[in-house]
Amino acid sequence: MAARVYLVSLLLPILAAVCLGCENPKVTPKVYSSTDATIVELVAFVGEFEVLCSDGDKNFPLFATLNDEVVPVTRTSDISKYIVSWAEEPSNAKSGSQVLRFFDEAGFGVFRKAQRAGEDVSKISPLFSVPLQLERAYKGPWVRSEFLAFAISVIIFYIAYSTKSHIMS
Would the keyword Metal-binding be found if you checked this record's keyword annotation (predicted)? Predict the structure, then answer.
């Protein structure tokens, strides 16, 4: 009996620390994206986030979702910084305001359970959210220069040929 009480007294602080997670996180985001999509197959988006908890916790895993899809999160060598990255085809890459939602392990478990059950996952409250303002990548000019040169040469040929025909008659 004494051994059980001793074991519980050792495990209780560890379990409490694991279950509490980060409280009142303060997030400092930096977001980057590809600006030129003329020669690439995928537009890359990278976000670096510094997360500081009010309780001083620095060692906790994070999970992220964007448009209800899971996005990978990795921790940098600086324990309080995380990196999120994803890539999309230039035709599917959305611009404008989007929200990146972050979950701790417990919240992500609830998210995945709701996702498997087909429930509305937007109602699940994240640990914190980061609003993103994404710019559309440049996809090149509306009219290609080769086509424009061809069109101008056809117009010049037409004008020259019709002027020649007018002079000859």
Answer: no
